[in-house]
């Protein structure tokens, strides 16, 4: 018996995480002087509240999970006689992975008969969520912890993350974007096209003039790299910009012949949203080319 754990950067619907028995460690966001835990059920702050605060020019900051928080969520599982498979937000974007490794070392001494596997997803938001969902589905099909861990390691570098943002200031302030890329994005009506690279870093891979050109360029990139044999669903996340997410979905349907049931659309949670900002649109899928 083993339990899959991840952190709230997965940006999955709470009902899906519960259905698949995925345990979630909520990371924290601070805005307007108050700290909130980013639970998937939005019990402390919901995305609409959060993005309204960003629209009112409030600044949000985030904090990685500390080792004690990682110990607590894993020990709860270990005490029940289960092993742990923890799939973590990209180590290139957060220190949560390192906190998990510290916790793993301490818990391994306390529970020598239990298996504790910590995996760096090299992914973010619903790209991380997509990887975790596939792992949980394999677990439900009867695969062992080692088989699921091998799948994650062999698949994570094929999870494509394509997105565009309206304001690069959030990424720049959070240290997620270089100054050169920030200056590029500030050019009049130029919208950056970004992705999470194969080594888990945030990078600009192109630019487009205007919002809908940027959305259509994301769709064209998906067309060129989509692996139809390895996808059950395409995931789309948004920073309180549902209409644009639906536009992207409908255009993909026209381009590659899918149906609405082939998509999962959800809001970007406050922890990721603190860095990506309002009106971000992101697409996630298994592809045949996740570039550097």
UniProtKB/TrEMBL annotation:
Signal peptide: none annotated. Gene3D superfamilies: 3.30.1180.10, degv family protein, Dihydroxyacetone kinase, domain 1. NCBIfam families: DegV. May bind long-chain fatty acids, such as palmitate, and may play a role in lipid transport or fatty acid metabolism. It holds the Pfam family DegV. InterPro entries: DegV, DegV_C, DegV_domain_contain. One of its GO terms (molecular function) is lipid binding. Keywords: Lipid-binding. This is DegV family protein.
């Amino acid at each position: 018996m083993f339990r899959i754990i991840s952190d709230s950067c997965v940006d999955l619907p709470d009902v899906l995480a519960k259905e698949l028995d995925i345990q979630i460690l909520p990371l924290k966001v601070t805005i307007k002087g108050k700290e909130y835990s980013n639970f998937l059920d939005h019990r402390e702050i919901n995305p609409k509240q959060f993005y309204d605060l960003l629209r009112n020019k409030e600044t949000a900051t985030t904090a990685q999970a500390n080792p004690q928080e990682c110990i607590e969520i894993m020990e709860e599982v270990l005490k029940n006689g289960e092993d742990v498979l923890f799939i973590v937000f990209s180590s290139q974007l957060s220190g949560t992975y390192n906190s998990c490794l510290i916790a793993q070392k301490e818990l391994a001494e306390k529970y020598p008969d239990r298996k504790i596997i910590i995996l760096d997803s090299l992914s973010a938001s619903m790209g991380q969520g997509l990887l975790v969902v596939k792992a949980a589905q394999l677990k439900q099909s009867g695969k062992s912890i080692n088989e699921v861990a091998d799948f994650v390691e062999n698949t994570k570098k094929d999870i494509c993350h394509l997105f565009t943002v309206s304001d690069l200031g959030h990424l720049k302030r959070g240290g997620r974007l270089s100054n050169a890329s920030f200056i590029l994005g500030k050019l009049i009506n130029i919208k950056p096209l970004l992705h999470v690279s194969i080594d888990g870093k945030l990078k600009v891979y192109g630019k487009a003039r205007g919002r809908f050109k940027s959305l259509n360029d994301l769709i064209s990139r998906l067309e060129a790299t989509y692996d139809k044999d390895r996808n059950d669903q395409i995931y789309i996340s948004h920073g309180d910009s549902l209409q644009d997410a639906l536009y992207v979905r409908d255009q993909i349907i026209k381009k590659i012949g899918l149906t609405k049931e082939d998509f999962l659309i959800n809001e970007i949670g406050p922890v990721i949203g603190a860095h990506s900002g309002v009106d971000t649109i992101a697409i996630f899928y298994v592809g045949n080319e996740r570039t550097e």
